[in-house]
Design goal:
The structure holds 2 protein chains of 2 kinds. Chain A is an alpha+beta fold. Chain A has 17 helices and 10 strands. In chain A, the strands form 2 sheets. In chain A, strands 2, 3, 4, 5, 6 and 7 form a 6-stranded antiparallel beta sheet that branches. Classes of the chains: A alpha+beta, B alpha/beta. The interface between A and B is medium-sized, with 36 and 24 residues.
Amino acid sequence: MLSNIGFALVISILILSFIIIYTASLDLKTSSRFITKNIYQLSLFQTTFTALSFFTLIIGFVNSDFSLINVYENSHTTKPFFYKIAGTWGNHEGSLLLWVNILVIFSYLFLIFNHTHDKKFRLYTLIFQNILILGFVFFLLLNSNPFDSIYPIPLEGLGLNPILQDPALAIHPPLLYVGFVGCSIYFSAAMASLLSAYGGRLFAQSIKSWVKVSWCFQTLGILVGSIWAYYELGWGGFWFWDPVENASLLPWFAITALMHSLIVLEKRNTLYYWVIILCLSTFILSVTGTFLVRSGILNSVHTFASDPSRGIYILSFLSIMIFSALIIFFLKHKKENYNFTLKSRETFILANNWFMVFFLVTVLIGMLYPIFLDVLTNVKISVGPPYFNIVIIPLVVPLMFLMAIGPKFGWIKSQKILLYKTLFLILGAVVINLFIYFFFGKYSFLSNIVFIAAIFLILHSLLDFKKFINVKKKFEIPRVISHLGFGLLVFFIGINHQFSLEEDFNLKVGETKKTNNYEINFESIKIKKSKNYKAVIGSFKLTNLKNNLEEYLNPEIRIYSNPETLTYEAAIKTKINSDLYLTMSNISRSDYYNIKFQNKPFMIWIWISALIIVLGGFVQLSLKKNED
Amino acid sequence: MKINISKIIIFSFVIFCLFVFQKGLKIDNSYDTKSLIGNKISKFQLSEINIHDLYISEEDLKKNKFTLINFFASWCAPCRAEHKYLVKLSSENNEIKIIGINFKDKKDNAINFLKELGNPYNFVGKDLDGKISIVFGVYGIPESIIVNSDLTIIKKIIGPIDQIQYNEILSTIQ
């Protein structure tokens, strides 16, 4: 039953897309200044049907309707309610439906919110967006239909991979999708802008909010994924330069560059073609990332059961997208004159773009090189953290200086810089760094420089923040917040990296292990039965030898029944100044457990810093609203 | 559209990338090391964990009738569990020589590990960054490979050796 309803809804999305493209093409030729009412109505219908189709799938998951293959393969009756819902997008087919939802909803919202802009531009955007929608709906129907049914109806489902049963991971995909698929709207808008010759300032204004929204969600999505990796994968790390993480970073670099150069386009009406390139490449990179992950070329936790025909489809679609974007761009491209003075704000924003492009290319090479080598020469290598750290970290230093100083330059001609203030702040940063260096521990020369730059950016941003609050220049505040967040992020990652402690040993119940600062007592073990798993829970007493404070930690080994899997749940005690992190794993045929204990300073501040970066984006969006 | 060098470069680059992606789809990524049985092991050179300039290579294995190459680390819990079978194998059987490859480990920890549980190895090689183990097709430890005197892999044990596998090893080398 659900299968038929869902299928009918998806078909109606498809038909509406065709009708919208047709009506919009007709409307392009009319002389009226306004878009016809029909298009608004069709678009609203399309949005409603899409939302309903997703809702139908959610109902299938909530009611454990195993007549749907998708529900049968990814759910189970004993699964908690929350994860039944999250299971809807925790698989390839369901997430593709979510993807279509976002395409459609953004298409509609862009249509109604940009009513002040040129008609032709809006119609072309609608047409391109609907071509994208068609592409993905066809993919859904031909290859990955979440509404495929199965007969005879199984009594029980296969269950969702337990490591995906986690609150952070339940919200991670929707956030990322709003971020990545949201880019589609300014991909379409950029194509439309080229075709309708609606460029410059007005184009920048029409896509500004959409760029910010998708930037905020991308950043948030990456952050949540990272938090999940921290406490679920049980290694105590939070970023691994894993190919899939890299795939998510590529569009983020492009969109961050875009967000900055949009300012120049809006204020100075220049850099138009560069902005277009960034608009196009952000979405192209998002789809490329999706292709690499979904086709199984990159293996990771994100690879749903891989299927080559799926890969072929996305690849063909990607090729069409890239070639049409390239051809339209080259046909419409004209030479632009740039006349900035060296010390103007535009130069600094362009500098930001160079950094972002450099990071993008670095990560792209690190990600693609192993694939190319494997395909062309059959040699398997993996590019890991050393490469990324060596290439990227040194460049973060000048970036942070520019992030502090750059925005101080006025438009075109800069006023005299407050050289003394800068020098004074650098001195302050050096002193603080030396304080950390001598009182907490030694670290390398490069780390010193990174700390100084980060502290400089933090101090600078704090002073700016105070100043802008006083003079009520509220439009500068979001930028200061995000830049402050970045400085804090680098600072705390550095601290965390330098001062983390890690101990690895084996213990059995009743034994005590002494490390440098802690005494760890394995007190007892108990077994708990939960709805969909059985857990072996250890109780550990940790005594801090310095101040005799006692902490109790309870790591778990969970044995999930559907599908049968072991997961190791870390026990994490988060405090304002450090995280205590303890995992235990069983040693087969032995009373001993392998214990991994870590003390990670300022862990929570890494998350807070990243949230501050996002906060800047949301503050800016809310300012926009108030202004209207 | 005027055609110029930069456009040609951009288009060729895109086409090349898409071509590689398309080829990449056909590569079988399911990595199953069981299929290595019957293959010869690749060339390698291993240095001894204690003595820096003492090396072993595939040539040295040709002298042994059978060689079991075991990948282990002190941080690996199942390695601890399987260790007694290796000790038993080395003391009860002269047909087979055992080489240990210490995988991504700290030297001191590895030495303590062997002190505590006994050293069944005729040679302990170090592989601090795990690169040499990749040559043998290892993707997790513990793992063991048995090769004969012409360096062909005749058995592969993924995961810890237990009593059942111990018996299988004995029947393999008979």
